[in-house]
Write a structure and sequence with these properties.
The chain contains 2 helices and 3 strands. By secondary structure, it is of the alpha+beta class. It has one domain (about 30-114). The chain has a 3-stranded antiparallel beta sheet with strand order 1-2-3, with helices on one face.
């Protein structure tokens, strides 16, 4: 299956947060606009491109120790023409699981052709 990863980056500012600032109804979610064209979305729907979200969170845990964690998640989509109500479906997974997930989609496509 031909596959291409297109990179788009966004940088986040450093933020300092204390426990009271993270009240029960507050969130750290931020909206990110992806500069994708209609052609990009077609490639994403055909599993030729994926969306990769990666980052690093670093924080002091209150015990004189700094914790650093790297995250990488990938969002991929594939066409399911047999499903009339949802002809394009998507999944998210950890980056290190992408090849396994794509192999499963390829098997499904081959099985659907026979």
């Amino acid at each position: 299956m031909p596959f291409r990863v297109t990179r788009s980056s966004a940088s986040w500012e450093r933020i300092d947060i204390s426990a009271p600032e993270l009240g029960k109804d507050k969130t750290l979610d931020r909206r990110l606009d992806l500069p994708l064209t209609a052609h990009d979305w077609e490639n994403i729907a055909d599993t030729k491109q994926v969306i990769v979200q990666s980052g690093r969170i670093r924080y002091e845990n209150g015990f004189e120790r700094t914790v650093s964690d790297i995250t990488c998640d990938v969002w991929f989509y594939f066409r399911t023409p047999e499903d009339k109500t949802n002809p394009i479906q998507g999944r998210g997974t950890a980056c290190d699981q992408l090849s396994q997930q794509l192999a499963g989609i390829q098997k499904q496509k081959i099985a659907a052709q026979h």
